[in-house]
């Protein structure tokens, strides 16, 4: 880097993945990025909604960008934007776009603000790369949410009952109780309000997804009905963690009804 301390203070460079936008005023936009060095940060893109803005295309959601940023009073302001990677196949396919929005929404909700997290950033880039190329997008989303929960410290309990401490027997039906922390043993589970039976096949698949790289997971001959069953359990858990519904998931469900596929 060139320039003295004063120059560094007024302007800086950074790279990140655009995960969210929101409009501000007539022509401005707040752009949220996931960065390796500072977690999630929100920056102001001035005039970016005018047709003539040259920055606009580089600041689309799911773009990996290199930015020049000027320090501002309330918001730091993007002064230059250059795309490093644009994921064109995500943009040209509605199902891929929907799954990418799901990933971006979870990242926006769970990424720490202003806190270094290289593992999370690498996971995000890796997952979008798979959304761009995968033949089974359900597998990518299930794999991503498992690893996102692990990396951000929200991993559900899958091995020991969080209520009594007993090891979970994976060959029997346990219970899924998000407010208790994940899978609980049958004895504790029947007494829990809001718990639902967790079949052995789902718990086994959860354990596999949470501990394996995607390259192992994609080799599994996973049936769509089992992946959708797992989605229901993970949705309940994520709703508990986020304390709200996931908007992108509603969109995915609508798409599924229309196209009868994902
Ligand atoms: Zn128990």
Annotation keywords:
elongated, 10 helices, de novo design (two linked rop proteins), five-stranded antiparallel sheet, 262 residues, OB fold (Dihydrolipoamide Acetyltransferase, E2P), alpha+beta
Percent strand: 15-25%
Major sheet details: 5 strands, antiparallel
Number of domains: 2
Q: What is the SS-derived class? A: alpha+beta
Average the pLDDT over all residues and give the rounded result: 91
Helix content: 40-55%
Overall geometry? elongated
Description:
With 262 residues, the chain is of the alpha+beta class. It folds into two domains: 5-86, OB fold (Dihydrolipoamide Acetyltransferase, E2P) (Beta Barrel); 89-259, de novo design (two linked rop proteins), CATH 1.20.1440. Helix content is 42%, strand content 21%. It contains ten helices and eight strands. The strands form two sheets. The protein has a five-stranded antiparallel beta sheet. A hairpin with a 3-residue loop joins β1 and β2 (28-35). The longest helix is centred in the last third of the chain and has 19 residues, at 224-242. The radius of gyration is 21 Å and the shape is elongated. Zinc ion binds next to α6. Residues 161, 163-164, 166, 184-185, 187-188 line the site of zinc ion (ZN).
